[in-house]
Amino acid sequence: MARKLLRLESVSRKFGGLDALRNVTYAVPEGVIQAIIGPNGAGKTTLFNCVSGVFPPTSGSIYFDGVRIDGLPSHKIAALGVSRTFQNVALFKNMSVLENVMLGRHRQSRAGFLACGFRLPSMKREEQEIIRRAREYLDFVGLVDEENKPAGSLPLGKQKILEIARALATEPRLLLLDEPAGGLNTAETEQLGDLIRRIKKTLGVTVLLVEHDMNLVMECSDLVVVLHFGTVLASGTPSEVKNNEKVIEVYLGSAAN
Amino acid sequence: MRKKDRIVFLFFSLFVGLFPLVVASIKAVSHYIDVMIFAGIFSLVSIGLCLLMGYAGQISLAQAAFMGIGAYCSGILTTHYGWPSSLALMVGLVVTGVVAYGVGVPSLKLKGHYLAMATLGFGMIVHIVLNEEVELTGGPSGLVGISGLGIGNFQISSPFAWYYLVWGCVATVMLFSLNLVRSRIGRAFLAIHADERAAQAMGVDVSNYKVKVFVLSALLASFAGSLYAHYVEFLNPGSFGLMWSIKFVLMVMVGGIQNLWGAVIGTVFLTFLSNEWLHFLADFEVLIYGLILLVIAMFIPQGLVTVVATKLLKKGLRDGA
Amino acid sequence: MRAKDYNRCSMCASLFSLFAVVFLVFTGTVSLVLAAGAYKVGAVFSVTGVASFLGEPEKKTVEMVVEKVNASGGINGHPVELILYDDESDTTKATLAVKRLIKKDNVLVIIGPTRSGESLAVAPIAEKAKVPLISCAASYKIVTPVEKRRWVFKTAHSDGHAVERIFEYMKNHGIKRVAILTVSTGFGASGREQLLKYAPKYGIEIVADERYGPKDTDLTAQFTKVRSLNPDAIVNWSIGPTQILSVKTWHNLGMNKIRLFQSHGFGSKKNLELAGDAANGVLFPISPVIVASLLPESHPQKKTVMDYVREYTSRYNEPVSSFGGHAWDAIQLALSALKEVGPDRTKIRDYLENLKGFVGQSGVFNFSPNDHNGLSKKDLVMVEVVKGQWVLAQ
Amino acid sequence: MLTVRSIHTYYDSIHALKGVSIHVAEGEIVTLIGANGAGKTTLVHTICGLLKPSRGSIHFYDRPIHVLPPEKIVSLGIALVPEGRQIFSTLSVEVNLEMGAFLYRNENDYAKEMKERMFQRFPVLRKRRHQLAGTLSGGEQQMLAIARALMSKPRLLILDEPSMGLAPLIVAEIFKIIQELREQGTTVLLIEQNARSALAIADRGYVLETGKVVLEGTGEALLEHSEVQRAYLGRETSRNWEV
Amino acid sequence: MDFIQYLFSGLTVGAIYALVALGYNIIYNVTEIINFAQGEFVMLGGLLAVFYREVLHFPLAFAFLASVVTVGFVGYFFERFVIRYAREQAVLSLIIITIAFSIVLKGSAMLFWGKDPYTLEPFTQGEPWIIFGAALQRQSLWVFLTGTAIVVGLSLFFSRSYYGKAMCACADNPVAARMVGIPVRKMIMLSFVLSAAIGAAGGVAITPLSLMEYDRGALLGLKGFGAAVLGGLGHFWGALVAGLFLGIAESMCAGYLSSGYKDAVALVALLLVLFVRPQGFFGNAEVGSIKRF
């Protein structure tokens, strides 16, 4: 199997008296679509937040491509090539669709205050390039026709896709998608699955996916890890996980009530 | 600059350029040019504050203090040490920049009320220092004998010269700011304003940009302060107290908090309002001023210019259709 | 650029033009109807704002004087037109008001501003425009250096006069070790400067130099510190609530053995009411106008002062203040100049500069090219509070 | 007792409920299942008065309640155990319970007595009574939220995703409590993603999808329904991955 | 002896700061709004008491009460007609709104009372007491007692009474509070009335000591806010301790260091606390972390 792009070593995170993550040790190989499943509150979003630097883990360490990233601020983690979307869609709603994606190109551009303020030729060139690339990503996700609309005016499904486009614009090596299918209807979810597969295939980006929609998870992920009450319950290919004794036991335990 | 900004800018330049020619020919308003000079100086502060508050979403109640630092650097260096005014102005900028950086780094980690409190506290400290360092600043009685602005033998003295100098600066700063907010940096500001977490996840170094825009706004205030010092040729700490910081916030808010043109229009409007048009209110002025502020903050927090512009736009669309 | 932006910008553009049109229409329609041949006198006072308690009586006095002059046929047949602006105790506004007086109103002479800060700010403007300006504020810096203040005069006593008057009294009474307390405003700072400057001249040692803010609620710490140094006397230099506070604190801490001197700003009956018994024993120098009835008949100002006091109190039903007196002096100086030399700014200036023996409210003015104030410490009288009343101090 | 008639509700300009009608009869456990974003919580908030419907009506014992503020609705006998528990995390467990009896604040010993009853039913809360509620574990917090709702002796108890984020054993306990409550005469409206458990104890159920009721029926019938099985119970294995 | 005198002076001033800080805390506890008009309530309290006493010739105790009730009504008015329409706005707008309201109050007071300072007779007459050679004014003791009584009263109110606890619940989680039947709006109203009344009580108590005029509010409000932040926003005992600390620090600074810079010293201390420990002396970091997530 390919080398490990992301490695978590006994990562824990506490909130007050709650243990959101307990000693999670896990690794994500490069070039796969990896799904994280588990009930709400199992610690999936907390795990995303720890990896992307929204807050540091209480203990343990996280390595991205061999570099230790726990405790780094999230823009530094982003600069290393980790990008993400948010569960509740964190678009900049007053900015246009295109501008949202252009912001994703932020760390690929250099122009400083003076260059921007005086519109130096270098900045103009760079701006053209930003627009060109942003349009490419909009084209990739199929939103190029909407580029002038305010992001907040799009329907939820398109907002979710736009958020992915914005994340892709940062040219990540690892993309974290937090419940991308939440609130989407079946057709939209299918398109989304298609998009996620294209992201891996065409762009070669490793995808880490938190999702409730089992169809989507089973169809598009290469590997699945089950988080349960802040710990890793099981991991493997979708079919391995489905037939895992522990998983069956725990979930049947609840269902057989 | 983009095409549509250019149209506005053209109108702006036309208006600003013709203004003194028109008012000078009418005796009754010939002094409006002096009011406009002050309005221009204040506009520099409010443009900076607009970038900070409207675009990057950070509050500052210390702008008058930064203005004071610039003004007193100019004042002290020209009176006590006989420096040329232009050099003193530069030093004022450097000093303000350093101070703003020092204050900004810890302050901007705070949010909301705490940030307001920190900047307000800093502003008060500057005010106290200006009051107490009598040897240097002249204390509360003020600093007299500041030299006018000029380079070598060329002195800016006539109101026209001052007018065009000040508004030339406003135009330049306006251009700079317009370009800035329509660039990657402006997008970063807006992103920070909208959602710091998401901005950071997109690779924007949030705290760095917050400090930078804070320093930028302080520099503009300092520059305005130096102009003020050389124009009035007298300084006292009363011009740089908390009330003035609040007035600058008000100027930005009246025009439209996320609208650079609004900041300038709001500043001009309020300067004329309090210096020319509200005179007849006498003792009622404080009350009326408070009420205007209250009504604007309550019902049109997005600002007058923005609201009027949107209204006109809607009407225009209806009529057009 | 997106559509919204485009629209916003074009709207801004139309707003701008709208603004411009409104502005021009407004400015175009304003016109001034002036009384023909009127002598125009400008005035800038702090009628509102923090210094309004100074500016208010000044405004009233000047209005009263001008009305009276016009009622009696004006000056040499010309009515006097008073154009009065409020600077709201703000330097920027004072600056603009003076510019407006010079440019728009084209006045012959300007009276005011009320306070030192505003006066210092506008002095260079009057100087540049060559318009005589008669300030009602105290700071000696307003009229010095003389070569840069050829067009600027002032009618209020310099703080130095009050300081010298106090020190002279101390010297006569064998007081040597003095503690000074000053408020951190322009008034207090200027007083402090003069106190420190003149102390050596009268052989007085300043043993403590304490300051406090104009809005402080408690001065116990400053007075305690002073008490521990055991001075012969205390000089407190402030106006407003802290002035009363200082008297009360002095009284409450049982410091009556240490004499308390106040600045000339203490001269208001209101202060006696507010301080009550605590004020007994307080000494301060004051302009004769406040204590008109106490003056001996032989005093050169007795008649002038009594006339003003009678007129003012009957018209406004409130006691006179020294500030109103400054304004009276200023407007009367201006009017007498107009009467003598007519509507010519330069002649007015020259006339004022050489005026001698002008009997005013604050004293007898003797101007010279080196002295644009024309008063001296002798023009102040020393007053003591005894059993809640003012009496002339021995 | 509760009748919701074709209500439309907007949430942040999103048309979240598009004509939903449900009813709950006295003594029933009714469950509402559906995916994230289907509008379940919006419906609950509309019933409790936190959101106002733009169209439609809600009646409780024939009284229109969609016009009332939430505190009035609570006083009529509807108590909510909100999604994500929403306990007062900076207040102690005891105070949390007392707040549940706010409507009876003028009856001297009411709160004390009810608190005692709750401590008997949930002994773990007695142990933690002086602790800040925010420091409790998830299961304990959920118990506290339920106990707090019960403090006002509601006639209708609405539970919004009570199993969220809890270990299966605790979920089982909570479902047991719900059944006990019904046996003691409290009517229950249960909102759940854990469709299998919910349908197993429910008398009737509704399936909500993008703001509309797409299916309704008895608990068993829905459990057997092929659409429900496909969408909510996992296609092949019938194991509830979705939770 | 001097030290004790400084201490007395610091305690008196500090008690006033603490009272203003309490006002901030009450409103903050229920709404998380900082009401920058708090200082104006103090000013109004003092001036109204003078009005009732000197103009309407009420007995002193009754003037005190009438003033507190009137200012409480101003608080009600502020909540009912201003805050209620603005609560959903951004923090920036709220800051501006409360500042604007304070300007309105100040402007109205100026019209009504003019700019002169006013004084009020002390609650009890008599010469100051001499303790260890330091003079303690009777009114200082009144200020101190009023302050302490209100802190104790409020602490008990918020920790013991049903309404007090319900007000805390509103601050903690307004949505949940509404769900258990707490009338959140009324609680918010109550908090404004209460904090206005407390500010007024402080204002009446200090007027005999330090006089009162229309523009005194801003500085008192600022110092009080400093004390509130220093003690940890929303923390009553913290406000008392921090208020007294600020008062004593100022007094000592004026006594032993520089009287001109005493305000600056207090502000620098405040800024350092903000930067190093934003939750204040007594704010609970744990509670903070619970709140955030």
TrEMBL record, chain E:
GO cellular component, one term: plasma membrane
Keyword Transport: yes
Identification of the protein by name: Branched-chain amino acid ABC transporter permease
GO biological process: amino acid transport
Taxonomy, superkingdom: Bacteria
Matches recorded under PANTHER family: ABC TRANSPORTER PERMEASE PROTEIN (PTHR11795:SF450), BRANCHED-CHAIN AMINO ACID TRANSPORT SYSTEM PERMEASE PROTEIN LIVH (PTHR11795)
Membrane spanning residue stretches: 6-26, 33-52, 58-78, 90-113, 141-158, 188-212, 224-248, 260-276
Originating organism: Thermodesulforhabdus norvegica
Pfam families in UniProt: BPD_transp_2
Subcellular localization: Cell membrane
Main subcellular localisation: membrane
Annotated InterPro entries: ABC_transp_permease, BCAA_transport_permease
GO MF assignments: transmembrane transporter activity
Topology of this chain in the membrane: Multi-pass membrane protein
Keyword check for Ion transport: no
Recorded family membership: Belongs to the binding-protein-dependent transport system permease family. LivHM subfamily.
Swiss-Prot/TrEMBL keywords: Amino-acid transport, Cell membrane, Membrane, Transmembrane, Transmembrane helix, Transport
